[in-house]
Amino acid sequence: MNTSYNAYPVVEVIKSDSSSSCILFWNKVISIFGIPNVIKTEYGPPFNSRAFKQETEHTGFEHRRVTLLGRLAIAKAESFNKPLTKTFKTAHVGGKSWKQELFQFIRQYGPTPHTNTGYPPFQLLLNCELATNLQTVTKGDKLVTGNFFQIQKCGLKLKNKLRTYATNTTNH
Question: Which listed residue, of 121, 124, 146, 161, carries a Cα 20 to 30 Å from 76's Cα?
Answer without folding.
Answer: 146
